[in-house]
Each structure stands twice: as C-alpha cells, then as structure tokens.
Prior knowledge:
The structure is a single chain. By secondary structure, this protein is mainly beta. Helices cover 5% and strands 53% of the residues. It folds into two domains: 11-137, Jelly Rolls (Sandwich); 140-245, Jelly Rolls (Sandwich), CATH 2.60.120.10. The strands form five sheets. Strands 1, 13, 14, 17, 18, 19, 20, 21 and 22 form a nine-stranded antiparallel β-sheet that branches. The longest helix is centred in the last third of the chain and has 13 residues, at 259-271. It starts with a strand and ends in a 10-residue tail after the last helix. Fe (ii) ion is lined by residues 55, 58, 60, 65, 102, 104, 253.
Amino acid sequence: MIRNVESVWQSVPAIEGAGVYLRRVFGHAQMPKLDPFLLLDDFSSTKPVDYLAGFPWHPHRGIETVTYIVKGRVSHEDNLGNKGTINSGDVQWMTAGSGIIHQEMPQESERMIGFQLWVNLPSTRKMMAPRYHDVGRGEIPEVDYKGALVKVIAGSVGNVKGPVQDLVVSPEYIDVSLQSLSTFEHPIVMGHKAFAYVVEGDGHFDPNRVVKDGEIAVFTNGDDVSITAGSKGLHFLLIAGKPLNEPVAWYGPIVMNTQQELVKAFGEYSNGTFIKHKPQI
Ligand code: FE2
C-alpha cells in the first residue's frame, strides 16, 4: 500500500541558541504528530550573520540529536573535552542519553546548508551512557539508480545499509536527489512515522500533492512511498522511525517522560551533578 501525504506545512522562522536565525520545520507545537521525532531545524543560509552566534554551552538529556551538514562547517565541543568539526557531507549522530553539555558553533562559509533533527529516546534508554556516531561523508554510501542519487545515513536502500545502526527507534534517514521528472519508490516499515523535508525544487509526494522547498510532507501509514520530481529536479530528506507512544515532558534541550524528571534534570544542571557517564566515542 502506497503512503499518501497526510499533511503539508511550511517551515517557519525561529531564533535559537545565541541568536541563530533558522527555520523550524517542526517542534514543540507539532508534538506528538511526528513521534518519535521531536524537532527539525533548517539553519541553511547564504548570510553568515544568520548563524555565527551559534549554540554556546547547553545541556541535553533524554534525546538524540542528528546534525547533517550538506554544505558548510560546524565546530562542536563537549564539557569532557571531546571536540571536532562537522564538515560538508558529514553527519554527527549524538545520543545525549543521561546527559551531555556541549556547544555547536557554525563556521563562516559561502553557503550553509544544514539540518538538526531531534529523535526521542524511550523511557528505558533516556539515562543510557551518551555516545557519538561521527560519520564522515566518505562513510555514507551513495546509491545511484534510475535518475536518483541517494545517500544512506541510516536505514537501507535496496541492500545498501547506512553507517548509523543499532538505534532504538530503527530510524531511517536518507538524502535523495532526483533528476527532473524521475520517480523514487522506497519501502517504509508499516507503522513507522515517515516524513520528507524538501531542500530544493518540488515534486509530487503522492499523485495529488505537490510539495516544494521549505515544506514538509507527513505521510499516512503504508508500505511504500513514491515521489516524482518536478521539472527542475528535487532534493529532499526522507526520515522515518518507530513511534514510542510515551508521555513527553519537554523543556528546552531536555526531553523526559515526567515533570519530576525534568525538574530533577534542571536541578542537577544548576548544582553541577548533571553529567552521569562519560560518552562513548
Ligand atoms: Fe545541542
């Protein structure tokens, strides 16, 4: 059964971090519509002044953050001394688990194209040891077929598996570029939530629905998606995962199941006992 488009909306301007002008594709306001996904921010820009303020020191607990830099550079550093740079084509899949305190600072470039997705963790894993999956562009397989160029970050396309595996909600995260009027068909596990965010161009995400750059298409349930590019071609992210169906208590960068857990987390952050485990690299 082919999935249709259930709803479409446009990303909206938002200011985050120390004054980064970005576009919020979805967030608190849409919860729990995208479960297990909590938030998607698009910080693409041609003006460095939009993003140079960056995201200075802040904590995370109870979630995973996935930073995908199509073009540009973001330096990051955590309070335990781990540091590095996410360069064009790289992905950082960070499981905050029990807690991480870090900063993420976009660096000046001619054109920044970057996204951050927040994936919720189930109650049983919210306090797991943090870990990083730093995935360089060379580790991300590219599948080229029938007018589609597909980068597989997580999940699989045909028999090609993405490098980010062993994750709780079995997420799929693929970057698809389609030539003019070509079609991409892809199976998605029945029951998993799936959406596409259009980076460039436009196309039919079901036979009756055209979706264009800056818009998100949320799919109905089903086995497959079938997407056809418009005349100028189409670049989109296709993301899917298993819903958690758990209560969400969310404030800022910390997402737990109950209000008490949230209060505890912020209390620990202010009294210096927030960090529970050393991250696995
Ligand atoms: Fe962060």
